[in-house]
UniProtKB/TrEMBL annotation:
Coiled coil: none annotated. It comes from Micromonospora zhanjiangensis. Residues 5-257 form the ABC transporter domain. Belongs to the ABC transporter superfamily. Keywords: ATP-binding, Nucleotide-binding, Transport. GO terms for molecular function: ATP binding. This is ABC transporter ATP-binding protein. It comes from the Bacteria.
Length: 340
């Protein structure tokens, strides 16, 4: 299937201003620094990484909710960054966002009805009252809420129900692409699976394409077809969900996965624990060369600190941004000890 959306070398840099004497730019936060990826129609792409890696900014940049600094966003064959005003508004209807905390993203003084109608109004789709009413009821039914929810307010619902309202709000505009930023991380574990299952059902019924952003690898494991891992503004690894969980190849992904507890505590965990040196560097002052070299247990002198590795296909469909991916995979390079 053709890509529905494709990012080409996307960059989102935020200027750091010094407001003291002059309002001048003293540097940049390189939140997203050259990411290329594509998402096929009907696919679920899981984007994971620690907080501060740029994954949320990437999601917002992709929708132009923050303006990218450079690069292309090709949506259904059109470069979004070239669209203006009305054209961009039309395109935006086709791409909706679901946020982490439904309470903070929903206005507590607005009824569910007015929350849902808002988007329709913004796109001039709220003129026919009977049709609006039907759309709202159908949308609520699709997310498993009764029509009586329309006259209620967000605080009258549980966390899981509120996220269903957040999903309904995105769905009401009949989008093709949904960017979901941490859609279940504010919910109890028992509710997380319900919401993810609902998202999967909706995808199957409506042919939706998802970009699901999460810091928790377990969240995207089953729902994602493809998983991308971000570190300090860059994509360091990308593969099918199956391949990346079975054999993570980038040292950063290996470390992330080694920190995830095995699901069955009676099974002996034979995986090697990979400890990372130091803290996440600031995205305003990222390390030279491979951005992971200051923490990488496999880092090699000179090259890792000097040359930025490109994301490249190492084995079929598995892309890794590491100079030594092959040597690490076949054991020619061993990790060095890291002082904890
Ligand atoms: Fe580690 Fe070097 Fe690979 Fe970067 S390029 S992940 S520092 S081995
Ligand atoms: Mg985030």
């Amino acid at each position: 299937r053709a890509p529905l959306i494709e990012l080409r070398d996307l960059k989102v840099h935020f200027p750091i201003k010094s407001g003291l004497l002059f309002d001048r730019t003293v540097g940049y936060v390189y939140a997203v620094d050259g990411v290329s990826l594509s998402i096929r129609s009907g696919e679920t792409y899981g984007l994971v990484g620690e907080s501060g890696c740029g994954k949320s900014t990437l999601g917002r940049g992709l929708l132009r909710l923050v303006e990218p600094t450079d690069g292309e966003i090709v949506f259904d064959g059109t470069d979004l960054r070239a669209l203006k005003g009305e054209q961009m508004r039309q395109a935006r209807r086709r791409m909706q966002m679901i946020f982490q905390d439904p309470l903070s993203s929903l206005d507590p003084r607005q009824s569910v009805e007015s929350l849902l109608v808002e988007g329709l109004k913004a796109h001039g789709l709220a003129d026919d009252k009977a049709e609006v009413r039907k759309t709202l009821r159908d949308t609520l039914a699709a997310v498993g809420l009764p029509a009586s929810a329309l006259s209620k307010y967000p605080h009258e619902f549980s966390g899981g129900q509120r996220q269903r309202i957040g999903i309904a709000r995105a769905l009401v505009l009949n989008p093709e692409l949904i960017v979901a930023d941490e859609p279940v991380s504010a919910l109890d574990v028992s509710i997380q699976a319900q919401v993810l299952n609902l998202m999967e059902d909706l995808q199957n019924e409506r042919g939706l394409t998802y970009l699901i952003i999460a810091h928790d690898l377990a969240v995207v494991r089953h729902i994602a077809d493809t998983v991308g891992v971000m570190y300090l503004g860059g994509l360091v690894e990308e593969a099918s969900s199956e391949d990346i969980y079975r054999e993570p190849m980038h040292p950063y992904t290996k470390a992330l996965m080694s920190a995830v507890p095995v699901p069955d505590p009676t099974v002996e965990d034979r995986r090697e624990r990979i400890l990372l040196a130091g803290d996440l560097p600031s995205p305003a002052n990222p390390p030279s060369g491979c951005r992971f070299h200051t923490r990488c247990p496999w880092a090699q002198p000179t090259r890792c600190a000097n040359e930025r590795p490109q994301l490249r296909e190492v084995v079929g469909g598995h892309r890794v941004a590491c100079h030594f991916a092959e040597e690490i995979a076949d054991g020619r390079l061993r990790p060095h000890e890291v002082e904890a």
